[in-house]
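Input record (one chain):
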Amino acid sequence: MRDLPPLQWLRVFESSARHLSFTQAADELNVTQSAVSQQIKLLENFVGEALFIRGARSLQLTNAGNTYLPDIQSALRILRQSTRANFVRSDADRITIRSNWSFSVLWLTPRIASFMQTNPGISLNIVPAIWETDYSAKSDDIEIRFGTRSGREDEYLLSQRMSCFPLCAPSLAAQISRPQDLFRFGRINSLGAATPWDSFYELCDVKPPDGLQQSELSTHGYMLAVEMARCKLGVMLGLSFISDALLASGDLVRLFDVELEIPETYYLKADRSRLSDNENKFCDWLLEHGGVA
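The corresponding structure, as predicted from the sequence alone:
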């Protein structure tokens, strides 16, 4: 047989093996699922062995596939790094980061100057993301997400423990001396985050007075919830780890010492073996200043 299969077949194999999904590989490579399946079959015919065990709703590597994968990943990495080093000079110093919107504004922006000062030749392109669909299907992106980490090897915690606590404008805070007073003001909900007011009230062991129905404002964006609180529309549950800038500005103040622990956290998602040297520099800086794992 010929010594080497076509490079595209190897790219399709590597992506399918990494995701254990032909569908996700198709999304990543911007081809159809049937094209992925066909090219995997062609590769299997070329090497003379099955590389995947296909189930009704699952995909697993065979022993041959498991043995083949590390070498293919290493070869593709060498090709990618060599191409970047020798030819892709215009973009070599430009890093694109897809980042959770509130993290970008409240944590990254106040600190990014230190990275720029120590890496003067690098340009950053920060793309804000609110929804899961705002993130790219490309596996070589640097992404900063908020949610429950899946435990994959390409995910790195930026905060070990996350909690929430009441924040409001100073003029409202002057009227609140105990958790029971919160029922006199509207509560602001940031949907999509596990910060339920009912759980906070339960933690404080308080209940609304009989017949009182607390007003409520809900939004899908954490930064909009911050603006609502700044405009004295009520009290929000602020997130630890990103609230330092808010509290330092004095626009919002924290109420009480009670914190409600939540399951979500901020984390870096990046396959570092696929990144350029400059991209890895940014990841190192991010983990040094905020990371715990």
